[in-house]
Amino acid sequence: QVQLQESGPGLVKPSQTLSLTCTVSGGSITTAYYAWSWIRQPPGKGLEWIGYIAYSGSTRYSSSLKSRTSISRDTSKNQFTLQLTSVITEDTAVYYCARSVVAGPHFDSWGQGTQVTVSS
Which has the closest alpha carbon to 49: 119, 110, 118? Predict the structure, then answer.
């Protein structure tokens, strides 16, 4: 059974870059046809999909965050990483990594989530 674990700083200052890593165990991030996503939930709001990196290495991003988002991977460590630049207080949220099939919207495995607060 695949397991995902988020890691990274819990506090980021405005205008800086938020960087989070998701470590995957029990399955390879290069296995067809999975996609590995970042999703967030701001306080009092619903889930927001940020983007994914697919098994092939291709990426896709939310149109609202595309200009500030980059998702990359390290296949040797079975990890993928989110970078969100020029953060603002509205980027404060619980950030999750999750797995889905590329062609579908259903996420079958989730990390536990990590709180990131943007504050000076």
Answer: 110
The DSSP output letter for 67 is G
CB atoms within 10 A of CB 66: 13
- Asked whether the CA dihedral 83, 41, 105, 22 is positive or negative, the reply is positive
What is the pLDDT averaged over residues 82-102? 97
User: Each residue of 31-43: pLDDT tens digit?
Assistant: 999 999 999 999 9
Neighbours of 116 (CB within 10 A): 23
**Peptide bond connecting 33 to the previous residue in cis, omega within 30 degrees of 0:** yes
Tell me how far apart the alpha carbons of residues 77 and 18 are, in angstroms, rounded to a whole number: 20
Give the model confidence (pLDDT) of 41-69 as tens digits. 999 999 999 999 999 999 999 999 999 99
Other C-beta atoms within 10 Å of 92: how many? 18
**For tokens 């994914």, what's the residue?**
52
